[in-house]
Amino acid sequence: MKGHDPKMPRMEDILNLSVQDPPFAEFSASQIKWVKVEGGRQGGDDIALIPFARVDDFVKGESSNAECPASFRIESRRKRSEGSIIKPRVDGYLEYTLYWCSYGPEDYRDNESGIGDGSNTKPATGKGSRPGRRHMMRGCLCHFTVKRLYIRPLLALIIYNQRRHVDKIGGPCHGVLDLDAIGTRAMYAPRISEELRQKVMSMLYVGISLDDIIQHHMEVVQGHGGPHSRDDFLTRNDVRNMERVVRNVCHKLHENDNLSVRMWVQRHQKLVFFFQDNIGTEPFILGIQTDWQLQQMIHYGHHGSLAFHSMFVRKNLKHPLCTLLAFDSSQNAIPVAWVIASSFRSQDMQKWVRSLTEKVRTKDHKWKPNTFLVDDPSLDVSVVREAFQCWVLFCVWRGRRALIRSIFKKCCNIDVQKEMFKHLGCILFSGRSGPIVADAVEEFMHVYVDQSIFMEYFKRKWVPCIDLWVNSLRSIPMASMELLAAIESYHLRLKSKFLNEQDVNNTRRIDWLVHILTTEFLSLYWLDQYSLETGFFANARDESFLKNAWNQGLLIPDNDVIFDEQNLQVAKVISQTNRSLVYTIHSPGSEFSLCDCPCSRLGNVCKHVIKVAILCKQRQVARPLLTSQIYRRTLLTLLQNPPDDPLVLEHAILHATHLQQDIRSLEELSKNGQLQPLNSDIYPSIG
């Protein structure tokens, strides 16, 4: 009976609809439950609510329709500012976007065949002709509207006006259901996908020629049995057009750098996860992440490790650059986000860290890293721990590198160099703080008072912050050499890019930095991953960065490492390029191992240090984790001096239990090679 038919909701009821967030990277209309709305301008249309952040995923999913491949263009767009409406309608919008299938709404099929009176030459939208697209127009009426709701800005209302890809008489007009399209490009999407476009652009940025790109594409198409989509019809003209874009692109959108950056942000909103202009007391912050970087962060960061390469500072950079890194299956670092900021204070950092994690979890709400590495003791670890909800590890590569470079540069005697480095390691890993650290620093400065040039540097750069380093190394578990080598390899590649840059006048501009990072520099990492996954273009990769120090160290045979049983403070490694050379490693197995090879003398973690560290770990020439020592000490104190108050005793036992759980988690990380053990011979003062 009619009285029992379910009543269609009115537009006023849309906020009562459930918000749908399908658990897929991309999703289509078939994966959403649609509701027909009654009355109003959208009467009879299908509507649904999704998170606004997932609109692009929906558009991509709809473009991948198997029966009617398409691409949806933005036909019209309107925006309002917040506060511009006093009494907004329930479906009032902050942003209004109309998406239309690129095969319509105009229909030029009759014109191309020479049939018809030509009365259909004026586009239905009244926008005049569309140069270069007449051959694609087949009268498709499929379109939908997206409204970013005024009263709920985090939600998007999708209004599907016509879900079927049909023309005005209701028949299929493209795709496999259109018999007239069989054997023509109208069977497929009208243009190449964004993924293929980015792939070709990356190849062009790393210097692969047009001929090689076309040849490679033909091999790929033949490999999967011939053309199946529009992407398979890539032509030389397509690549030539993209080559022209690469050649003519200019980072300088305006003479004023600040205005140029704002213009870039407006044009590339999909690449920006956070932007705050330098207005008043607010610092400048720009967070950048491409779609490819987001994919890598989700893929390698889930149940994996992430790290900060914090505050890359060069004289020719206007603001410091911070990089968020993920690690691939070979433990090579991949930049998955960049932040250019004039301040990295805790309150400023909290804004963009939260924005980044929200963006990732919008794509995959189950995404969760295991560990996060920080390399700067001044960073607020609680911000990272709260946002990423994982263990935070401390990576000492930055401090280690700075000390080695300064010691080798400012001290000439090799024996003094190694003794100073070992002494500094004892201070930093002493596990103590306050006056005891201050006394140790005073003793160090007294012992090496004759090294005046280094001491001037040490007083200026290290004395004010050494407590921060000691406290971080005491309270935060330390990351392994494997991850340290990966981060340092990224640092060297980034540094190499800026050292090789010839245009010194532009390097002070933020727009130049943004352009270089998102085009040339990122393309190097895209090529690395593409080559590893497919085996193509291996010869085009930068040979100097094919393997980091960890991977190079794994190639050294165990027999080429010599330990002195009478003196475990020294190990020797035979050179792999000149068998007559033998390098000496002092303090083997520790974070502050020192090798006399040329690479190590530049402050880098060399392959010899890493190989020796691996063997030290395998032969258990290491002390238990500092955290486990703290747990044992706490437990022994509790057993030897049990408190009289039962409530205090219960609290103490609970605290010890939590510590035990933490130790088990850390031991699991240690088994996975993410934690660095401490060497008892090198740091006897711990404990």
Automatic annotation (TrEMBL):
Which terms are listed as keywords in the entry? Metal-binding, Zinc, Zinc-finger
* A molecular function (GO) term: zinc ion binding
Q: Which InterPro entries match?
A: Znf_SWIM
Which segments carry the region annotation Disordered?
A: 111-132
SWIM-type domain ranges (all copies): 583-617
Q: Which PANTHER family match?
A: SWIM-TYPE DOMAIN-CONTAINING PROTEIN, ZINC ION BINDING PROTEIN
Q: What is this protein called?
A: SWIM-type domain-containing protein
Origin species: Erythroxylum novogranatense
